[in-house]
Design a protein that fits this description.
By secondary structure, the protein is an alpha+beta fold. 17% of the residues lie in helices and 32% in strands. Strands 1, 36, 37, 38, 39, 40, 41, 42 and 43 form a 9-stranded mixed beta sheet that branches. A 4-stranded antiparallel beta sheet has the order 2-3-4-5, with no helix packed on it. The protein has a 4-stranded antiparallel beta sheet with strand order 6-7-8-9, covered by helices on one side. The longest helix is centred in the first third of the chain and has 20 residues.
């Protein structure tokens, strides 16, 4: 039954009272067909949605492929000094040469490749069949071996800091040191190789050697082995016939005792050792960088729990360390956004910090003096280029223009001392840039979710336009009736902070109907996730086609706003911004009464799987149906760096945020999915959640995807996700692939 408020909203808009959208079986089957094809259909009606600048002559020119509808296109060369355009090559001559070589007709507007390599007047490209080199003056073809396709990387495994046995000579060539049998041997002027250490063991060994510039000190990293606990994956259905296979690897998790490191300096002449006063209690084998004058080394130290980050200076003569940079907020240092660049000539360091409440750039002189470069209630997003000679930085930032969406990224230039801030990409929208190799020019791409991309060539010093390049062609797309998602802003839990999101309607939207709502969630604190740029195709639209209004929101606890906005996640990942998300949807429903907030579903993968799996535990009064894929359902079971980054060191808050510990709170309908070979979040996280639900006597569904890594489910999982929402939110049976014809109602 519709609420009185909803009924009044429909009357206020001059609409009859809405009826809940409950499609027939035939309508659902048609919706599935649209969902399968809508992305491809939409993409085919748009062209020039990307422009990739391929730089030539050290940055004096570049080329790009100008895409047109129907798969047509041409290759354009641009002279950066003037913006003058010309064909990169004679497409007709090249097509004729290809036709002669292959014996098949070749359309010069549909050449069988999308990218080329152009060096010293020679074009190199690969077709589906073979590779070719072309002399750009004669257009003579030469068959060559196709460029090898990049191989998929092996699953990540933790570095065990194996010691190198290679000899490390001192700068003056008088000494050579190497590691053998977990200890250090050194060969001096007398040519006799003698042990420098004898205390190395399997659990405490030396792993890296480095000499001071004056050859008077040898610096070694000593590893103290932690738990090195293992995670196990079982491949139950290997591609070749035979029994299941077990995969094992080292995998540190919150609460584990991890490897720690001592920095030890040796005087090889006297065999005297100095151990740095403070060991590294967390992280990777430290990288020591010699200072400009060669008297000291600098290195980073992130404390366990991410509560303090430092750049330390080590005196190799004494082992004494002093802090050059010391960042110790009350909550966490965000390592996923951290910027650290060493200046080779001056010895200065550019780094980032949120110490004033916003993510900004700072300059350290190497002697303990720190000055702030950027300031204001906005966020530095990254450093694109540092020109040490000019003492200038090109960087990206968002939120500087209060009239714009605070997530829109723009690019700026600023001097090391914080003066002469110059906007390089002033047009309204979300920007990306491609900087020339010499840093003098940039290709600027900008758009919004509503406005298609524009491409411009700009001066990277002044931001002035050298030449317009292209605009996306979306005329056919717009004629087809396609609609982009709609941005919406509402106040968050504090009644003051703006929360940003977008929403999608089905293409067959009927304003006289009321549609269930489905949230696509990912509340990982390592970024923000609502799309800000234009796209002709979007996964969430395919879900909307089934008969839902789909929403995507960045609640508190995600990144790219103020430090206070971000800190909501600290030791509190179960929050996931839900109070803001719920208020946002309620505010949108007042504008769009076709939203049925009595029928709300949610889905997500990885951290989003944790969020979706927690929504029906912690907010079952609002979220009624959830699909959680490869979720981190208890932060104690997942990788240490991601979880201690936001949750800190182990404490009772881990259990309080756990979906597994709170499984008995489940209300509504829940589908869990997991890939059995997940190398990111161990599958046991999902299995333990399932076991806890069973122990609590709860009803739920579990789908295991054989032979799959970290996944949203793949094609099979996609159908299960759709079916679950259609069945539990729309109240109809989805199409059954085991039957040729869907059953009639």
């Amino acid at each position: 039954m519709l609420s009185l408020v909803t009924s009044l909203l429909f009357l206020a808009k001059g609409l009859p009272e809405a009826r809940p959208y409950h499609p027939s079986t035939a309508e659902v089957a048609a919706a599935y067909a649209r969902a399968d094809t809508i992305s491809l259909d939409s993409r085919a009606k748009a062209a020039m949605l990307t422009l990739n600048a391929n730089w030539l002559d050290g940055g004096k020119a570049f080329w790009y492929r100008k895409d047109e509808l129907g798969g047509k296109g041409e290759f354009i060369k641009v002279e950066v000094g003037t913006g003058a355009k010309s064909p990169l090559f004679d497409a007709n001559r090249l097509a004729a040469a290809l036709a002669k070589a292959t014996g098949k007709p070749v359309d010069s507007t549909k050449l069988p490749f999308r990218t080329v390599r152009y060096v010293n007047g020679v074009l190199r490209f690969d077709t589906d069949v073979t590779g070719y080199e072309v002399d750009a003056s004669t257009y003579e073809l030469k068959r060559v071996d196709r460029a090898p396709r990049p191989q998929r990387e092996a699953p990540w495994s933790q570095d065990l800091w194996a010691a190198s046995g290679d000899g490390v000579p001192s700068p003056d060539k008088k000494w050579t040191a190497h590691i053998a049998g977990r200890n250090i041997l050194v060969k001096g002027p007398e040519a006799a190789q003698v042990p420098l250490t004898t205390d190395g063991t399997e659990k405490s060994y030396y792993a890296r050697l480095q000499w001071s510039a004056d050859s008077k000190r040898l610096i070694a990293i000593k590893v103290h082995v932690g738990d090195r606990n293992k995670v196990y994956l079982i491949q139950n259905s290997p591609p070749t016939w035979g029994p299941a296979k077990l995969r094992t690897r080292i995998y540190d998790r919150p609460g584990d005792t991890v490897d720690t490191f001592d920095i030890v300096t040796f005087d090889p002449a006297t065999k005297t050792a100095y151990t740095a006063a403070e060991p590294l209690d967390y992280g990777e084998l430290p990288l020591l960088r010699p200072t400009k004058d060669g008297t000291h080394f600098t290195y980073e130290k992130m404390d366990r729990g991410y509560g303090r980050w430092r750049i330390l200076s080590l005196d190799p003569m004494t082992g004494k360390t002093t802090a050059i940079v010391d960042d110790h907020p009350a909550t966490f240092v965000d390592s996923t956004a951290l910027i650290h660049q060493d200046m080779e000539k001056s010895g200065e360091i550019i780094y980032s910090s949120e110490r004033d409440g916003w993510h900004h750039l700072y300059l350290a002189d190497g002697n303990g003096a720190n000055t702030q470069i950027t300031k204001g209630q906005w966020v530095v997003r990254g450093v694109t280029k540092v020109d040490e000679d000019k003492r200038q930085i090109v960087f990206s930032a968002s939120g500087m223009d209060s009239a714009e969406d605070p997530y829109f990224v723009h690019f700026y230039r600023i001097d090391f001392d914080g003066s002469h801030l110059v906007p390089l990409t002033p047009a309204k929208g979300n920007h990306t840039v491609q900087l020339s190799p010499d840093g003098q020019e940039l290709v600027d791409t900008y758009s919004t979710v509503l406005d298609p991309p524009v491409y411009e060539l700009r001066n990277a010093t002044t931001g002035a336009i050298i030449s317009p390049l292209e605009r996306a062609n979306v005329a056919e797309l717009m004629k087809s009736g396609w609609k982009p998602p709609t941005p919406f802003v509402a106040k968050g839990r504090d009644g003051k902070t703006d929360i940003y999101g977008i929403y999608y309607k089905p293409s067959h939207f009927n304003p006289a109907k009321q549609y269930p709502v489905v949230e696509d969630i990912y509340a990982g604190p390592q970024d923000s996730f609502v799309r800000k740029s234009f796209s002709a195709s979007d996964y969430d639209q395919s879900i909307a086609e089934l008969g839902f209004i789909v929403v995507k929101i960045d609640g508190m606890g995600t990144r790219n706003r103020s430090k206070a906005f971000h800190d909501v996640c600290y030791k509190n990942l179960a929050d996931a911004g839900f109070p803001d998300r719920i208020l946002w949807m309620k505010a949108l429903a007042r504008k769009e009464p076709a939203m049925d907030l009595d029928r709300v579903g949610i889905f997500g993968t990885s951290a989003g799987g944790q969020n979706a799996g927690g929504a029906v535990l912690f907010h079952p009064e609002f979220y009624k149906v959830a699909v959680a894929s490869c979720g981190c359902h208890d932060n104690r079971l997942d990788k240490i760096w991601w979880n201690e980054q936001w949750m800190g060191v182990m404490g009772p808050h881990y259990a309080a945020c756990s979906n597994i510990e709170n499984a008995s709170k489940l209300k509504g309908d829940l589908l869990l999915m997991v890939g059995e070979l997940d190398t990111n979040v161990p599958p046991e996280s999902t299995y333990r959640y399932a076991a806890a639900l069973q122990a609590a006597g709860k009803e739920f569904s579990l789908v295991i995807i054989p032979n799959s890594d970290h996944t949203a489910g793949g094609p099979y999982g996609e159908r299960k996700r759709r079916d679950f929402f259609v069945r539990h939110l729309l109240g109809v049976e989805p199409p059954n692939p085991n039957r040729e014809v869907p059953p009639k109602r």
